[in-house]
UniProtKB/TrEMBL annotation:
It comes from Streptomyces ramulosus. Residues 5-29 form the Ribbon-helix-helix protein CopG domain. It comes from the Bacteria. Residues 61-77 have a biased composition (Low complexity). This is Ribbon-helix-helix protein, CopG family. Residues 57-77 are annotated as: Disordered.
Length: 77
């Protein structure tokens, strides 16, 4: 797998906050940002998979569970 360069322009306050978060984890700013982006990408792909599974009816009666949890009528498609 190759690598490429991504250049970002950040204001001083945001960069300092990122530096602090990275330092707390013993990471470089670059590693912290890449890890955060990878985690966000995974979260989005995972949520898409969950949504697709629910649309296909793969995880029980989630509409009924939602209704029971908040009292609102469940949408039936």
């Amino acid at each position: 797998m190759g690598s490429r360069v991504l250049s970002l322009r950040l204001d001083d306050e945001l960069l300092e906050r990122i530096r602090q978060h990275a330092a707390k984890r013993g990471m470089s700013v670059q590693d912290y940002v890449v890890r955060t982006l990878v985690r966000e990408d995974f979260d989005e792909r995972f949520q898409s998979s969950v949504d697709a599974t629910e649309r296909l009816g793969g995880w029980g009666d989630t509409a009924a569970e939602a209704e029971a949890a908040d009292g609102s009528p469940a949408a039936h498609g």
